[in-house]
Amino acid sequence: MSDSKPTAATAAVVLVEAATAVERDVISRWVAADGLERGSGAPSPIQIALDTEQIVNKLLARGDDPMVVPVRVLWLPKERDGSRRAHVSDIATFSNPRNPHRLAQKWIVRNAPDRHRVLTGEPALLSELRTRHTESTGNDTPRSLARYIVRSAVVTLARAERTVIGDRYKVPRLVAEEILDDPRFRRQLDDIAARTGIPREEAFERADAALRELVAAQSRLVSDLFSQAMAPIHKRAWTVHADETGMAELRKYNRRYPLVFLPSHRSYADAFVLGDVLAQNDFPPNHLIGGANLNFWPIGPIARRTGTVFIRRSFGEDEIYKAVVEEYFGYLLAKRFNMEWYFEGGRTRTGKLRPPRYGLLNYLAMAVRTGRAEDALLIPVSITYERLNELGAISDEQLGGKKKAEGLAWMANYIRSQQNSAGHVYIRFGDPLSARDRLTAHGDVMGADAPPDEARARLAVQKLAFEVAVGINRITPIATNALVTLALLGVRGRALTIPEIQSILDPVLAYIDERKIPQGELQVLRERMGLAGVLDRLSDAKVVTGYTAGEEPVYSIEPGQHLVAAFYRNSAIHWFVNRSLLELAALTAFDSHSANPLEAGWAEAMRLRDLLKFEFFFPDRRGFETEMEAEVLLVDPEWRTRKPTPTELLDKLAGSGFMMAHRTLRSFLGAQLVVAERLALRDPESKVDREQLLSECVRVGQQMLLQTRLHSPESVSSELFASAYKLADNRNLIGPGGPELRKEREDFAAELRALGGRIDRAEQLDASNRKLLP
Questions:
Q1: Is 713 helix (H, G, I), strand (E, B) or coil?
Q2: From the CA atom positions of the chain, what is the Rg in Å?
Q3: Which of 82, 325, 521, 722 is most deeply packed, by most CB within 10 A?
Q4: Using CA atoms in the order 699, 700, 702, 706, what is the torsion angle rounded to 10 degrees?
Q5: Domain ranges of the chain
Q6: What is the CATH number of domain 480-571?
C-alpha cells in the first residue's frame, strides 16, 4: 500500500482478512505477540475485518490518522520433493491445501506449523490512502474509499504472498469490481448508453455480465491439479526441449512490464507445453486468450480457473461487449499481468506460419497508445513438433472436410491420440519487442491527447505483427521429420533407398550448418541407422511407406498422406525460400535476352517476392536485397568482383548438390495456378462467390492432379487456395469487370504456367533427378 512503517507513536489498525475462527485466532495471537514489532510502549493495534461496511463504520469514522496494515493467514501444501504444490492425493481429504476447511486448519496449526504463516501487506497511513483514492477517482465518498482500501489490501497481500510461494502463483482478484468502479469506464458506459438509447442502468448491468463472462477467475488449486492431470498426457507424447537462455532477463523485465507471449500455433497442446516451461522457470501464469469454441464443459470452467479468457468469435454491433474487452485488456496490461494468445487466429493447417490477425494487437496498441500501460514486451515464441498425432483431421479439412466441433467426444479422442510417442517438441523464445518503441518506429502516435489517425495506427499494428512473425520464423528450428519429408516430397512419388535419401540430405545439412540455422536432432540424419529410425517412426505414423521385400528397403510418401507430410516439411520451409527464389532468378537470367541478364534475374526475384507475399514473411525491399545477396555469396563467394554469367551461376547452384525451388514453391504456385485458371474461365462481369470458387478449386485440383497438370498433391489444399484467392484479389482479378479483366486473368494464369516450367527445369537440375537421366 505504501512504504510507510508504523512507529510507536502511531496508532495501528490491522485489517484482518479471515474466513474462519481459526484464522482470526491465529492472527489475534500473532498481534498479541507483537507480530508488528511496534515496541513495548506502542498502543495495542485495533483489529477490523477486511470488509467494506466494517471499514466505513470503524476505520473511516475515526478522527486520527492510523497506520493501516492488512493481514491474513497463508496456508501451504505439504512439501513434496522440495516443492509445495497441491497434489491429486489432497482431494482425498476433501480440502484445498491452499484454503483448508476449519477442521483441517486446526490440525495444521497443531501438527504442521510449517504449513501456515501470517502475511502482512505494505502498511499505509489512512491519510495516504484517502489522498491517493481521491486523486485517482475524484470520488471522496466513504463507501468508494472503503472499496478502494479493500482492493489495495488484497493487492498488497498478494504481493507478500508471492514472496513466499513464487511468481508462478500470481493471480488477480476483485478485477470486475475494480473495473466497474473506474470513473473513466463508467463515463464510457454512459456515453454508449446515450448514443444507443438504452438506460444507464442497463448499460452497467450488461457490462457487469460481460466482465463476469470474461474475467479469468484463477485458482491456485485448480492450476496445480489441472497441470498434474494434463502433464502426463503430453509428456508421454513428447520430450520437451526448451531454450531457457534469457529467461532470467525476461523475469527482470517482467518486474516492470507485462510480457505478451505470442507463440506459433500448431497443436492444441501448445498452451500446455509452453505453460509447463514457464511454470518451471517461475513465471506467473499467463492470461491465455482463447476462442469460445473451447468453452465447453468441463474444459471451459476448469480453463477459466487456470487463466484462460474466452472471447466471443464475433462482437457484432455489441458496443458494450467491445468496450468491456478493451477495458479488460487495458486493465491486465496496466496491472502487469502476462498474456498469451495465438496471433495467427487458429492452428496452422499447412505447417507454416499463417498470416496474423490484428484484433487483439489493436487492443494492446490502444492500451499503450493511450497510456493505460507504460509498455508491453511482445515475446515471439516458436513451438515446433517433430511429429503430431492430430494431423489427420487437419488434412481432411484442407480437402474440403468440415472442422469437427470441440466437445467431450473430441476431448476423449484427443487424449487417446496422445498415447503414442511423437518424439521431440522444441520451444524457442525470440528477442522481446517493445510495443511502444516498435509502434512509434512504424509511425503510430503515442499519448492519450494525440489526434487519432486510424490509417496510420492500423498500419503500425500490421507492421508490428509482421515483426513478430519474422521473429518466430527466425528462431524456429528444423526438425528431422521436416528434412526427411522435404526429400521425399521432391521426387514426384518415387521411392528412395536410404543412401539415396542421404545423398539428398547431405548437401542440405551442409547448407544448414553454413547458414547457422537453428536445428533439432539433425545429427541423427547423418548416419544410416539414425535416418532409418526416423523413417521407421514416420512409417509407424502412416506418413511414409516402406517396401522391404526387394534387394534393399525403399521409402516413399504414403498414398493420400502428402498433406500430412507437407505439414512437417512446411514447418521449416521458410529457411529455403530465398534459395529457391535465387534458383528461379538464375533461370530467368539464363533465358533473358536483356543486355544485363543478371539485372533481369534480380527483377524476377522481386516479382516472385510479390507473388508469394501472402505465403511467406519477406522483409522490406532493402532487407530482402541484403538477404538475397547473402544467398548468392553462399553459392559464389566472389560474385561481387567477377560477376558470374547466368550459366556459371546455374552451374554453381546445381553443383552444390541440391536444388530447392521444386521442393519448396511448387505446391504454392500450383494452387495459385488452379485459382487463376478457374477465374480465367469465369464471366468477368459476374460476381465471384469465394466459397463456391474455393470448393470448385478442390474438386478441379484433384482432376488436374490425376491428369498430371499438377505435379504436387500438396497443391490441392483449401488453405492454399484461400491464400491464392487473396493474391488474386490483391491484383484486382476478382471483379466484376469488363473484357480487360478476362485478359488480365488469362495473363495471370499464363504467367504461372511459365513459372511452373522454370520450376520443372530446376527439378531437372537437381542432383537427385540427374542421376535418373540417360
A1: helix
A2: 31
A3: 325
A4: 150
A5: 12-165, 212-472, 480-571, 575-656, 664-770
A6: 1.10.10.10
Cell 496490461, located at residue? 333
Find the Cα–Cα–Cα–Cα dihedral 79, 85, 90, 95, rounded to 10°.
110
Share of residues in the chain with pLDDT > 70 (%):
86
Distance between CA atoms of 11 and 14, rounded to whole angstroms? 10
The three three-digit cell numbers of residue 563, written as one number: 498433406
Q: Is the pLDDT of residue 9 over 70?
A: no
Residue with cell 492431470: 229
3-state SS, residue 733? coil
pTM: 0.80
- Distance from C-alpha of 351 to C-alpha of 388, rounded to nearest angstrom: 11
Residue 431 CA, distance from chain mean position: 15
H helix or E strand, kind and range, residue 142: helix 142-165
250: left (phi over 0), alpha (psi -120 to 50) or beta: alpha
Q: Which helix (H) or strand (E) holds 426?
A: strand 424-429
Centre a 10 Å sphere on the Cβ of residue 76 and count the other Cβ atoms it contains: 18
The reply to whether CATH 3.40.1130.10 applies to domain 212-472 is yes
Residue pLDDT, tens place only, 199-241 = 999 999 999 999 888 887 666 655 665 666 666 666 667 788 9
Mean pLDDT of 182-204: 91
**Pairwise CA distance, residues 568 & 350, whole Å:** 8
Q: Bin 493: left if φ > 0, else alpha if -120 < ψ < 50, else beta.
A: left
DSSP string over 279-298: HHTTPPPPEEEEEGGG--TT
pLDDT confidence tier of residue 521, bands split at 50, 70 and 90: very high
